[in-house]
Specification:
Layout lengths: L1 H18 L1 H30 L22 H13 L4 E6 L2 E6 L2 H8 L15 H4 L8 H11 L5 H22 L8 E2 L1 H17 L12 H18 L6 H6 L2 H32 L21 H9 L7 H32 L1 H15 L8 H6 L1 H13 L5 E5 L4 E3 L2 E3 L4 E5 H4 L19 H4 L20 H18 E5 L8 E3 L3 E3 L4 E6 L1
Parallel strand pairs: 2-7
Antiparallel strand pairs: 1-2, 3-11, 4-7, 5-6, 8-11, 9-10
Helix pairs in contact: 7-8, 7-19, 8-13, 9-11, 11-13, 13-16, 13-19, 14-16
Bound molecules: protoporphyrin IX containing FE.
Protoporphyrin IX containing FE binds next to helix 8, helix 13 and helix 19.
Family: Belongs to the cytochrome P450 family.
GO molecular function, one term: monooxygenase activity
Cofactor: heme
Length: about 525
């Protein structure tokens, strides 16, 4: 009886609730959302299912295949691509419930890189946020557009002209430091080059003298390496991806220590620059007017950081945090990429003496035996050296792969890659397509002679990426590489001790050999 009375008393209420228009709408929306999601997911599964690739396990996909020591992750990824994607130029894979396509053929790269629709960075870049925030490399949408507009003038060619002095000074310091290795046992050249490129970017972009060349064991450089390997581990291992699990892992403590080292330096650089700007204002010096491009390069060198501080309008347009994320981004992208590019170049020149001789002949014809410092014109005249640099970036692209989040279906060949997929462009494999580069493993700078580039697919060689999100620093990088390499080669003959095939490649954020590059130097 009691329960019947209770039921009766509840019924009008519950039926009243059921009839409530609000609840009906909420329930309908929930059902609609679930059904839509189901169909979207079913469609995604069906379309991805059509693409060739290794079969994945439920829930974890191919996570086990890439659950290897971090030294081996890059090799594993390349292996999957070689097995499944070499003829088609693309294949699929699953990491947990996330679908990926791995792309390594120019025709398959074009629909993504050539379109302004696919400029969103994928989740893989999120693990860089604690360090780089959402600076130019990692940001998306409107924020990225605005920042790119503000920062593009900092790499204007007239500004680059002003950087030549720094390239010269730092290259001279480098050869002076290398002097102690002449005619001695083989040594690892990587730390020398990295300190040099770090000093170059600090002074050119930040107007800051880091003097790393006097301290090869810089803790900043070490922290960059370590954070790179931690990020790669998070990218490949699904259980390290959720923040709460990562925080419980053994990597977290070191991750935080590295972030502190990295941010301490960028904060110091910004504080010093702010103080300099304040003093300049106090001394009544003319303020830099960033909107007026015509003044760039005509007065005191306007570093990238000056532009940022100008653009910040005392924190109203860009906060201190905004400035810091760009400083961190440019410090990293601006030195680690060129350092790796140069070291690979030196390895290749050191293992191909006839190519090295041709570079030296070119330098002799430019400098005619004089030891005068190089000028911008000299750098522009180093045509064959440029081919050597480009060919080194073909075999060993500093950024071996990049990723985009596909937010709109895209047709690649006969397949439709659905929105929600992550596209990984494997630049390392793309540059080894035998249909584009005959004997792709051979170091052959002639690949970049003007007559040999003609007719080549524009997306077959993209060390600096391509399209709207290409590398903002590519001209800077080429000039810097020419400056440093030519300064070394004018003084020393380089002989590689390590053989290419014996090196373990770490395809982290930047492509490096695990144990550096050992060379011998002799005086010319
Ligand atoms: C050999 C040297 C270099 C190589 C191979 C290289 C390569 C690349 C690549 C492949 C990207 C696209 C990355 C992605 O989408 O994930 C990129 C972006 C970028 N690079 Fe470079 N880079 C080099 C040097 C530099 C230098 C010297 C600077 C600055 C001084 C720089 C600053 C940047 C920035 C800020 C971005 C992000 C651009 C954007 O998304 O708008 N890079 N670089």
């Amino acid at each position: 009886m009691v329960s019947r009375a209770l039921l009766v008393s509840l019924l009008p209420q519950s039926s009243g609730l059921l009839m409530s228009p609000l609840l009906t709408v909420v329930v309908a929306l929930l059902i609609g959302y679930t059904v839509m999601n189901y169909y979207r997911r079913a469609r995604l599964l069906r379309l991805i299912g059509l693409i060739p690739g290794p079969p994945g396990l439920p829930f974890i996909g191919n996570a086990i295949e890439v659950n290897v020591d971090h030294d081996e992750i890059f090799e594993r990824l390349s292996g999957i691509r070689n097995l499944w994607g070499s003829s088609l130029g693309f294949c699929k894979g699953w990491l947990g419930s996330k679908p990926y396509v791995f792309i390594s053929k120019a025709e398959c790269v074009e629909p993504i890189m050539g379109s302004i629709k696919h400029i969103e960075k994928s989740q893989e870049y999120d693990y860089l946020h604690p360090w780089l925030g959402t600076g130019l490399l990692t940001s998306t949408g409107l924020k990225w557009h605005k920042r790119r507009k503000i920062l593009t003038p900092a790499f204007h060619f007239r500004i680059l002209d002003d950087f030549i002095d720094v390239f010269r000074e730092q290259s001279d310091i480098l050869v002076e430091k290398l002097e102690k290795e002449i005619d001695k046992d083989p040594f690892n050249i990587f730390p020398y080059i990295t300190s040099c490129t770090l000093d170059v970017v600090c002074e050119t972009a930040m107007g800051y003298q880091s003097n790393s060349q006097n301290d090869k064991d810089s803790e900043y450089v070490k922290a960059v390496y370590e954070i790179g390997s931690i990020v790669q581990n998070r990218q490949a291992k699904i259980w390290l991806q959720p923040d709460f699990l990562f925080k419980m892992s053994s990597y977290y403590k070191r991750h935080q220590e590295c972030i502190k080292i990295l941010h301490d330096l960028s904060n110091k650089i910004i504080a010093d620059k702010r103080e300099e700007v304040r003093q300049e204002k106090e001394n009544g010096r003319e303020e830099a007017v960033m909107d007026d491009l015509s003044i760039l390069g005509t007065k005191k060198r306007l570093a990238f950081l000056d532009l940022l501080i100008e653009a910040s309008k005392d924190g109203t347009v860009l906060s201190d945090e905004d400035i810091r994320e760009e400083v961190d981004t440019f410090m990293f992208e601006g030195h680690d990429t060129t350092s790796a590019g140069l070291c690979w170049l030196l390895l290749l020149l050191g293992s191909n003496q006839e190519v090295q001789d041709r570079v030296v002949e070119e330098l002799d014809s430019i400098f005619e035996g004089s030891d005068r410092p190089f000028t911008m014109k000299d750098l522009n005249d180093m045509k064959y050296l440029e081919c050597c640099i480009k060919e080194a970036l073909r075999l060993y692209p500093s950024v071996p792969m990049l990723a985009r989040q596909i937010e709109e279906d895209v047709k690649i060949g006969d397949f439709l890659v659905p929105s929600g997929t992550t596209a990984m462009i494997i630049i390392y494999a793309l540059h080894r397509d035998p249909n584009v580069f005959k004997n792709p493993e051979i170091y052959n700078p002639d690949n970049f002679l003007p007559e040999n580039i003609q007719g080549r697919h524009p997306y077959s060689y993209i060390p600096f990426s391509a399209g709207p999100r290409n590398c903002i620093g590519q001209k800077f990088a080429l000039l810097e590489e020419k400056s440093i390499a030519s300064t070394i080669l004018r003084k020393y003959r380089i002989e590689a001790v390590d053989r290419r095939e014996d090196l373990t490649l770490l395809g982290e954020l930047i492509l490096r050999p695990k144990n550096g590059i050992r060379v011998k130097l002799t005086r010319r």
